[in-house]
Q: What sequence folds into this?
């Protein structure tokens, strides 16, 4: 997973622009308070992420990056990438899950290390892709674990193809309308000016701002940061289309919530500054077969902020708890 070329880091300009943006982000004060309380520093939580067997496949005209570690006879768990990260963000939980499950992770088209442009920037398009991916890889009703943008793809895919998954484990992402968003998400959704400014600032600023706002404990290492910047270099413009079409996409997934007839484990970081935890409680009220776990000392990137709790939650859910919902 270590790139052959020098690692990319946010530049001084990236950091300055991110700092200016966070100065006008009211949620950041509470995040900083929580970070200080946790003793969060610039020292990476993991000096180097555990190795993941990354490879690229061709699907629907795109080059799709996946990681797969097979375990014959074990339940299949499918991890979907978050934004502005990639499947490398699952490295802290990869080993624990690979010891028990047939494990697959995928960078969705247009995100992470996969190709793809504006045509993929709707929940509906991502749902169609998910069904095609599961068919291509021959996955038999996987348990789908999907934070952030992956959550939207998982809900859309199951709504379009009922029975696609054995269960969903989703959180810190969009699906319900109206969405209770943090101020940065609202800027990106409702303001063409802010989408233009974020696109002009580029991947380094995008990743730097997210790393400061979306964690309360975890600090990513340079290998992770490099992968995220490489993943989105020159691509923030198309990513902003995902936010522009956010209300239209929510209008398709929100009615579909009532149709989901499979076990759902919701998870959410208590200190999520991008998508408020109130979304989780409202989703819990809308879904038929559901349980909710709020990670009390986690932000938007909850699967990293409290990686051990998250990995344990996945293991319990897949091995047992989904049968009780």
A:
């Amino acid at each position: 997973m270590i790139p052959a070329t020098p690692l990319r880091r946010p530049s001084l300009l990236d950091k300055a622009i991110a700092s200016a943006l966070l100065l006008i982000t009211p949620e950041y004060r509470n995040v900083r308070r929580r970070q200080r309380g946790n003793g969060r520093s610039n020292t990476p939580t993991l000096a180097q992420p555990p190795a993941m067997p990354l490879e690229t496949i061709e699907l629907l005209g795109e080059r799709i990056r996946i990681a797969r570690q097979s375990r014959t006879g074990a339940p299949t768990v499918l991890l979907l990438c978050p934004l502005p990260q990639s499947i490398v963000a699952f490295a802290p939980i990869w080993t624990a899950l690979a010891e028990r499950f047939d494990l697959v992770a995928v960078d969705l088209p247009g995100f992470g290390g996969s190709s793809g442009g504006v045509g993929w920037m709707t929940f509906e398009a991502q749902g169609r892709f998910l069904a095609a991916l599961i068919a291509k890889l021959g996955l038999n009703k996987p348990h789908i674990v999907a934070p952030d943008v992956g959550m939207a793809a998982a809900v859309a895919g199951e709504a379009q193809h009922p029975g696609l998954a054995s269960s969903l484990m989703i959180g810190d992402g969009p699906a319900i309308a109206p969405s209770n968003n943090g101020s940065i998400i609202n800027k990106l959704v409702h303001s063409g000016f802010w989408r233009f400014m974020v696109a002009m600032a580029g991947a380094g600023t995008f990743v730097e701002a997210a790393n400061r706002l979306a964690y309360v404990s975890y600090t990513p290492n340079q290998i992770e940061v490099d992968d995220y910047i490489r993943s989105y270099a020159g691509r923030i413009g198309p990513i902003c289309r995902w936010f522009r079409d956010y209300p239209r996409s929510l209008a398709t997934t929100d009615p579909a919530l009532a149709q989901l007839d499979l076990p759902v484990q919701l998870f959410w970081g208590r200190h999520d500054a991008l998508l408020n935890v109130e979304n989780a409680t409202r989703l819990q009220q809308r879904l038929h077969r559901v349980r909710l776990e709020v990670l009390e000392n986690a932000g938007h990137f909850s699967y990293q902020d409290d990686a051990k709790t998250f990995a344990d939650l996945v293991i319990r859910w897949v091995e047992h708890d989904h049968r009780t919902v």
Remarks:
- Strands lie at 54-59, 62-69, 76-80, 102-106, 143-147, 167-171, 264-269, 290-295.
- The domain at 12-324 is CATH 3.40.50.1820 (Rossmann fold).
